[in-house]
Specification:
Largest sheet: none
Shape: elongated
Strand content: under 5%
Number of strands: 0
Number of helices: 4
Length: 83
Amino acid sequence: MRRNLSPVDLGRIELLVEQGFYANRAEFIRLAIHHELGKHTETMRETSVRQSFVLGGVGDMRGIFKAKYFIGWPTFLRSPGWS
């Protein structure tokens, strides 16, 4: 993955690395991405649950519905043609 950073941002990252907060720039970027993704965990979980329950899908969904119901996850049902 390639990203262009402004000279100011790159300088700030370098300063933190030089001061020993991070081992290198890659570690800083990896942790920053991990932190940002962590902020949206609930949204990603809800979206994946919604998208996994599309009526008319292939296979028997009863087992999945029972498992999700048992652990308390909401089940969102969709069918082609429904809003």
